[in-house]
């Protein structure tokens, strides 16, 4: 049985006041015990988020990391630093990192390995652009991104990942993949993972991301191969995010 994971991605948004607001709100509600919740906040808020959410079951995560352990890499943040600041998960290969910061599959793999080396859970983000979908290349693109990482890991490492399928055309656009469209790609990803190992495929949590909201989360999460959500915009409003978490229970 896969435990659903709802992960909020604040991107470069939020404030210490919002961190405090989330801390108070999550302390006051009981989340379904069968759901894991994580909040991926900007680096400077990690420590405060860890403290504000410390009495809750919410885990704190980061949005990217360096592929290097330390050294002269001005502006970068290492996996060990994230761990020391309380992060337990980290997004890797978010489409904004791939397109705006030029992270290709090799860069994504290096970051996944860096995360694993410090016992962080990498949430590997994959997804096709609208152009690729219209050219009927969705599966080729998405499975290619999955294989670029999974081919280079050993069995124990593979089992420590979470995969988030995020169609690029649905991120921040208000345009959500239909439950059927999302399920089809999730099933293809699970099929791809089964070629490594049936148990890996069975246990791997596959999140959907792309304009998930309180009013569409339930039908997406009801799909058999959708094990949670990566939530951008709606994770900045505490009531909306809480409603999504509740609908995963
Ligand atoms: C994201 O940033 O990963 C995301 C899915 O954003 P949004 O929910 O705003 O589409």
Topology:
Layout: E1 5-9, H1 16-28, E2 36-40, H2 46-52, E3 59-62, H3 79-84, E4 89-92, H4 95-100, H5 105-117, E5 121-126, H6 130-134, H7 138-150, H8 155-158, E6 162-165, H9 179-194, H10 198-203, E7 206-209, H11 217-221, E8 228-231, H12 238-247
Helix pairs in contact: 1-2, 7-9
The structure holds phosphoenolpyruvate (PEP).
Write a concise keyword list for the protein shown above:
alpha/beta, eight-stranded parallel β-barrel, TIM Barrel, binds phosphoenolpyruvate, 249 residues, 42% helix, globular, 12 helices
Written description of the protein model:
The protein has 249 residues and is α/β, with parallel strands linked by helices. The protein has a single domain, classed as TIM Barrel, CATH 3.20.20. It has twelve helices and eight strands. It has helices spanning 16-28, 46-52, 79-84, 95-100, 105-117, 130-134, 138-150, 155-158, 179-194, 198-203, 217-221, 238-247, and strands at residues 5-9, 36-40, 59-62, 89-92, 121-126, 162-165, 206-209, 228-231. An eight-stranded parallel β-barrel has the order 1-2-3-4-5-6-7-8, surrounded by five helices. The longest helix is centred in the C-terminal third of the chain and has 16 residues, at 179-194. The model has no long low-confidence stretch (mean pLDDT 97). Bound molecules: phosphoenolpyruvate.
Task: Summarize, please.
The protein has 249 residues and is an alpha/beta fold.
């Amino acid at each position: 049985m896969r435990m659903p994971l709802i992960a909020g991605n604040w991107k470069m948004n939020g404030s210490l006041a919002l961190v405090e607001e989330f801390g108070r709100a999550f302390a006051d509600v009981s989340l379904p015990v069968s759901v894991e919740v994580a909040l991926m906040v900007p680096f400077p808020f990690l420590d405060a988020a860890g403290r504000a959410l410390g009495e809750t079951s919410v885990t704190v995560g980061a949005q990217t990391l360096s592929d290097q352990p330390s050294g002269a890499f001005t502006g970068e943040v290492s996996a060990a630093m994230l761990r020391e600041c309380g992060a337990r998960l980290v997004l890797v290969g978010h489409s904004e990192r791939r397109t705006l910061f030029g992270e290709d599959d090799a860069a994504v793999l290096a970051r996944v390995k860096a995360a694993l080396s410090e016992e962080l859970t990498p949430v590997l983000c994959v997804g096709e652009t609208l152009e690729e979908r219209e050219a009927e290349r969705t599966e080729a693109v998405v499975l290619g991104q999955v294989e670029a990482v999974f081919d280079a890991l050993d069995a124990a490492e593979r089992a420590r990942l979470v995969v988030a399928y995020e169609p690029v055309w649905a991120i921040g656009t208000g345009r959500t993949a239909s439950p059927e469209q999302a399920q089809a790609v999730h099933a293809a990803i699970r099929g791809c993972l089964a070629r490594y190992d049936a148990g890996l495929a069975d246990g791997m949590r596959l999140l959907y991301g792309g304009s998930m909201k309180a009013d569409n989360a339930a039908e997406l999460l009801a799909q058999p191969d959708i094990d949670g959500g990566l939530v951008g915009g709606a994770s900045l409003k505490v009531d909306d995010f809480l409603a999504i978490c509740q609908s995963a229970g």
